[in-house]
Specification:
With 1041 residues, the protein is of the alpha/beta class. It is 45% helix and 7% strand. It has 34 helices and 14 strands. The strands form 3 sheets. A 9-stranded mixed beta sheet has the order 1-6-7-5-4-8-12-10-13, sandwiched between helices. A 3-stranded mixed beta sheet has the order 9-14-11. Helix 10 runs antiparallel to helix 12, helix 27 runs antiparallel to helix 32 and helix 31 crosses helix 34. It is globular, with a radius of gyration of 34 Å. It is an enzyme of class 2 (transferase).
Length: 1041
């Protein structure tokens, strides 16, 4: 359906390359003009030169590039030492003294002037080893040797000294580093000086957990580990001979639980918080009267079936993106329609039209959140802090327009319920290209943007792009991961922003400054180039107050993720993540510049007594290893580019031959390190335009590009055969091979040495919806667990993959935990069955305890409780959230995780793909009505069976104790505690079965009773604990002798 908001014609295309087009204009990429000044590694500004013509050097030990302003701030407000070698800064001439300077050395002001010869000797070495911006070289020493240097004298008289001081003050005032001391000084100058100084401050800071909170937690973890060792020592060496099979099963389960606890606990050893400074970001990159220097962001929204994912929800997500607090010309929203639905296409056209009114309304009144459905449904005082007299009138008008917009969307949904026999037809009378969802061409439609419709106030809006990749029979499309990779290529051709925000269609932007929060890290001059992504926590709307099934997942997002942030960074969770585009292209992060050490790599780092080694030889070996893998050209290219020049291109390039011509300025060594034309095609595919975009680290399109030809090239890169014989899904983009492609993609980046950051502002940046009824929640957990099993059985398993990379040990433990946790279900379901067996047979897994053994048992339970309390104390998680997480760990473990293990084994080993279908009943219209909605699924059978078994066991055990008298109650208490532990953990599941009417579906009861009865009959028939008699059966004769 066409719309007046479209910025270009609707374009479709097939995978047959010859049917598309030929590009009209071709230019070879040229290198940008280079600058001659060094860049400060702290604030990003130019370092500048001293009065004598030499580059300012803050630290003479390592010559770490720092400007004079940051040097003086570090001496006055910081730790007074170098950021790289941590050597205390020496006082330069003209700099104010600070505490710790040598007061008796009065000639220190002239130290730099007497080190001229030393600087000239060392400058050539410095010029060859430092990282220059855009390949620029600092002026050589020969160019400045002829200059006359001021102040060759050893001493100065009073008049000369005063004159030098005044000159220094004048220079400092011009640079905005000091304020004038005049009594009638201008307040505006003082404000400007303050703002300049504030803009140089870090954009974020690490907030470590208080030592009074974290140190007791670590101590208890160590104590618990020691107690666990003694506990296992007792359990293994003290078998229960009267219940030997039960004892063996219990010990094996307990050892597995202990290993799982270690994998989960130790990655939480270094938890941290992070705090961002958005005001400093604005002062540095958004100064008034200057062009906005924030880098562009491409936003990806993925959807498959608009009938299951309502278009009104997707529209709200898109509207929140278009209204984000970020320069409109630097935001582009790409919506991936993997179902080729005309319903979504028409809904986006309506959304683009409504955005022309919604976006200026949000910007005028600074609304939060900027998704209209959730803004108008908030039960808060919407007049709070609003002072504009027109706000109430505008809000009422906007609410009415939104309701009309919803009606139009509902009409489209109603129309889409019944597909015409001849298929859908567009407004211009042409058939909809996606009538066959499994066989259709690629489709792209551009709305809004600089060439599209303006808002109602005549201002530009962010660009909105509809994308549906080509699908043909016989091709593997790789579900969501394949759709995301198609968006990566389309965005690289059309906009090529250096950063990409990935959102699910039901996750809207709740904090309009979310992108700026991410930029505080990604545009940081110190760590920005080393970050692969910034992950935000997931927060959810529409969850009941008690969060019965732990949908909020607070323990994971507020404890585990903060722990990983202190190691190498959080895992990627599939949404709410801002990526560095270069990291998705499979490149290595830039290496940190380190001073050479007089050691070799032939022994471990802690061994310093070896001699005769050479680092160059070691590096050659590493390079040779990567060459074996076929990636030597790529790795050396990325490393070289990180140290000598930044990849940029200022002209369009549509042929790989012309790319080679654009590299004329490089020397032979650099040209040999760049990938050849064949390697480019093998890695990225047959698109010269896309390959050119990968060479531009800071993004952007080549100048003079033709938008029409770019659209056609974008159609080509989303063709179904484009990824054949390339590294897409293997080393580039979202990684294929698992339904949880998010974990696999993040794992590959961390193995290459990239870091990630966890950003959790006070106001959640993103919010979404979560399934709150029992069946849907279990199926969601089933999908996650199945993906973990697939990774475990693949070559990317963290147990054996990536040991030659730069993945840290604790980070590896965390990834191992994410892929082995489904297998805990086997031990868990066995352990939850043991209480019922013990109560029915009168046996127990633990023999009679002596005093020492009782102490170990009590110490273990006490350490578990204390660990939980201290964890809640430093994390701020409530005890209710923690307890719900513990309960659902058991519920999911005995149901969804167990099915995932068997389904994964069948899928990977036998090639059998099984699906568990859900049959839904009518939902309740009341608030949280879906909470009580019941859907039959086979996942409900195992936990229901466990509940019935343990309840029957409790009744049988109590009855037996009543019949046998007082002496039977003592041993019974341990068994009852064991059984009640299982029942209490499964209690939310039991409530979910009952529903609102407290009724359990008959089929669930029948299946569970049948399984419990079969198990009981088999157990009685086997009766493994009665001694087998081999001799004659002896009976009493009945005669009293």
């Amino acid at each position: 359906m066409a719309s007046n908001t479209m910025a270009s014609d609707f374009v479709t295309g097939s995978h047959v390359r010859n049917q598309l087009h030929e590009h009209e204009e071709r230019r070879s990429p040229t290198r940008e003009s280079t600058t001659t000044n060094k860049i400060c590694r702290i604030c990003g500004d130019e370092i500048g030169f001293k009065d004598n013509g030499l580059l300012f050097v803050a630290c003479y030990e390592c010559r770490y590039p720092v400007c004079k302003a940051c040097y003086e701030y570090g001496r006055s407000e910081g730790n007074q030492s170098c950021h790289q070698c941590h050597t205390r800064y020496k006082r330069h001439k003209g700099c104010p003294r600070v505490v710790g300077d040598e007061e008796d050395n009065y000639d220190e002001d002239f130290e730099d002037e007497f080190q001229l010869n030393k600087e000239q000797k060392d400058y050539k070495f410095y010029n060859q080893n430092q990282n220059h911006n855009n390949g620029a070289a600092i002026p050589s020493v020969a160019a400045i040797e002829g200059k006359d240097f001021e102040g060759e004298k050893e001493t100065y008289n009073n008049e000369e000294w005063k004159e030098r001081v005044e000159k220094w003050k004048t220079r400092q005032e011009k640079r905005g580093l000091v304020t004038k001391a005049d009594d009638g000084g201008n307040d505006q100058d003082d404000d400007d000086d303050y703002l300049n100084a504030e803009a140089r401050q870090p954009l974020w800071r690490k907030v470590p957990i208080s030592s009074s909170l974290i140190n007791p937690y670590r101590i208890v973890i160590v104590i618990r580990l020691v107690i666990l060792c003694f506990f296992f020592h007792f359990r293994i060496l003290t078998p229960a001979y009267d219940a030997y099979p039960l004892w063996i099963i219990s010990v094996i389960c307990e050892i597995w639980f202990g290993l799982s606890w270690i994998l989960d606990q130790f990655p939480k050893w270094f938890p941290i918080n992070r705090e961002t400074y958005l005001d400093r970001l604005s002062l540095r990159f958004e100064r008034e009267g200057e062009p906005n220097r924030l880098l562009p962001v491409d936003v990806f929204v993925s959807t498959v079936d608009p009938l299951k994912e309502p278009p009104i929800i997707t529209a709200n997500t898109v509207l929140s993106i278009l209204a984000v607090d970020y320069p409109v010309e630097k935001v582009t929203c790409y919506v991936s329609d993997d179902g080729a639905s005309m319903l979504l296409f028409d809904a986006l056209a309506e959304t683009a039209e409504f955005a022309r009114r919604w976006v200026p309304f949000c910007q005028k009144y600074s609304m939060e959140p900027r998704a209209p459905e959730f803004y108008f449904s908030e039960k808060i005082d919407y007049l709070k802090d609003k002072v504009q007299p027109t706000f109430v009138k505008d809000r009422r008008a906007m609410k009415r327009e939104y309701e009309e917009f919803k009606v139009r969307i509902n009409a489209l949904v109603a129309k889409a319920q019944k597909k015409p026999e001849e298929g859908w037809v567009m407004q211009d009378g042409t058939p909809w290209p996606g009538n066959n969802t499994r066989d259709h061409p690629g489709m792209i439609q551009v709305y809004l943007g600089s060439e599209g419709a303006l808002d109602v106030e005549g201002k530009e809006l962010p660009r909105l792009v509809y994308v549906s990749r080509e699908k043909r029979p016989g091709y593997q499309h790789h579900k969501k991961a394949g759709a995301m990779n198609a968006l990566v290529r389309v965005s690289a051709v059309l906009t090529n922003a250096p950063f990409m925000l990935n959102l699910d269609c039901d996750h809207y932007i709740n904090n309009s400054k979310a992108m700026k929060e991410a930029m505080c890290f990604l545009m940081d001059p110190q760590i920005g180039k080393k970050l692969c992504y910034v992950q935000f926590p997931q927060r959810f709307d529409g969850i009941d107050r008690h969060d019965r099934y732990a949908n909020r997942n607070v323990v994971f997002f507020d404890i585990n993720m903060k722990g990983l942030d202190g190691i190498q960074g959080p895992v990627y969770v599939g949404t709410g993540c801002v990526f560095n585009r270069q990291a998705l292209y499979g490149y290595d992060p830039p290496m940190s510049e380190k001073r050479p050490k007089m050691t070799c790599d032939c022994w471990p780092k802690w061994c310093c007594c070896c001699c005769g080694g050479s680092r160059k030889k070691s590096k050659g070996k590493k390079k040779g290893f990567k060459a074996i893998l076929g990636l030597a050209g790529l790795y050396s290219k990325k490393k070289m580019m990180g140290k000598h020049y930044t990849r940029r291109s200022s002209g369009p390039a549509f042929a790989l031959e012309e790319i080679e011509e654009g590299l004329e300025g490089y020397d032979e060594l650099e040209k040999s390190s760049l990938m050849s034309q064949k390697n480019f095609e093998k890695r990225f595919g047959m698109s010269p335009v896309f390959i050119t975009s990968t060479l531009m680290e800071n993004g952007g399109l080549p100048e003079g590009t033709n938008p029409g030809s770019l659209i056609k090239e974008a159609i080509h890169v989303i063709s179904c055969g484009y990824e054949e014989k390339t590294e897409w899904g293997k080393e580039i983009g979202w990684i294929y091979g698992s339904v949880t492609e998010d974990i696999l993609t993040g794992f590959k980046m961390h193995c290459r040495g990239w870091r990630s950051v966890y950003c959790s502002p006070k106001r959640p940046c993103f919010k979404g919806s979560a399934p709150i009824n029992l069946s849907d929640r279990l199926h969601q957990v089933l999908r996650w667990a199945l993906g973990s099993v697939e990774i475990f059985l693949s070559r990317h398993c963290p147990l054996w993959y990536g040991y030659g990379g730069r993945l840290k040990l604790l980070e590896r433990l965390a990834y191992i935990n994410t892929i082995v946790y489904p297998f805990t279900s086997i031990a868990l379901i066995a352990y939850c069955t043991l209480p019922a067996v013990c109560l029915l047979t009168g046996k127990f897994i633990v023999p009679t305890l002596n005093n020492l053994a009782s102490i170990w048992f009590m110490a273990l339970f006490l350490s578990i409780i204390v660990t939980g309390v201290l964890e809640l104390r430093w994390s701020g998680v409530s005890i209710e959230d923690w307890w719900r997480n513990e309960q659902f760990w058991v519920i999911g473990g005995v149901s969804a995780h167990l099915f995932a293990v068997f389904q994964g084994l069948l899928k990977v080993l036998a090639g059998v793909d099984t699906n568990f279908t859900v049959t839904a009943k009518a939902a309740d219209d009341a608030e949280f009505g879906e909470l009580y909605l019941f859907k039959w699924t086979t996942l409900l059978i195992p936990p229901t069976t466990l509940i019935i078994l343990n309840m029957v066991g409790v009744v049988a055990g109590i009855s037996d104790a009543i019949n046998n008298g007082y002496g039977s109650w003592g041993p019974l208490f341990g068994k009852l505690f064991f059984a009640f532990w299982v029942i209490v953990h499964l209690y939310p599941f039991l409530k979910g079965l009952m529903g609102r009417q407290n009724r359990t579906p008959t089929i669930v009861v029948l299946w569970s009773i049948l399984l419990a009865s079969i198990f009981s009959l088999v157990w009685v028939r086997i009766d493994p604990f009665l001694p087998k008699q081999t001799g004659p059966i002896l009976k009493q004769c009945g005669v009293e002798c």
